[in-house]
Amino acid sequence: MMKMSNLMIVAAALAVASPALAADPIVESALSSGTVGEQWDGYMGFVSAPSGDLKAAVDAINIKRRAGYTQIAAARNVTVDQFAQTTACSTLRSVKSGQAYKLKDGGWRKRNGSESITPDYCG
Amino acid sequence: MNKMVLMIAIMMLPGCINVSAPDKPIEINLNVNVKQEVVVRLQKDADDFIANNPELFPQ
Known about the structure:
The complex is a heterodimer. Chain A is an alpha+beta fold. Helix content of chain A is 50%, strand content 11%. Chain A has helices spanning 4-16, 25-33, 52-76, 80-93, and strands spanning 36-39, 44-46, 100-102, 108-110. Chain A has a 4-stranded mixed beta sheet. In chain A, a hairpin with a 5-residue loop joins β3 (100-102) and β4 (108-110). The longest helix of chain A has 25 residues, at 52-76. Chain A is globular and about 45 Å long. The model of chain A has no long low-confidence stretch (mean pLDDT 91). In chain B, 47% of the residues lie in helices and 0% in strands. The N and C termini of chain B lie far apart (79 Å). The interface between A and B is medium-sized, with 41 and 27 residues.
């Protein structure tokens, strides 16, 4: 029998996944153009004021991320922020050259290649 | 005698009950960075979460 905490993590993984598993093209387009970007806190942010559709799409993503973070953090006995920041270590590593990202200490930056952009605690 | 002590104790109870709000605000630490050893411990779960929810992590 699986440990309860592992069961909860599997549940979080399945529960958060929406029926349409493809990423929203409006968000992907905004990522490419640098109008939205990944943040150190585990959420996507707006580099410039978004259209209504884009804001709705990004807000929906962030809400679902937080739901997953919350569930897994509880199972692992850490705070939501600790798990969100850990996830951000991976999302920041995946930021493509030319895309925008934001760390805690500054404003929006653009990745210029494959230089390291993750905070020290990411290892 | 014991009743007396009990009565006095009960009469002193209102002094023990504090219904006012604490003067320090409740601290929610949104500005504390996660520590590296915590990241190491959570990394696999984080990567699994990303892999299992690709629509939440568009590229």
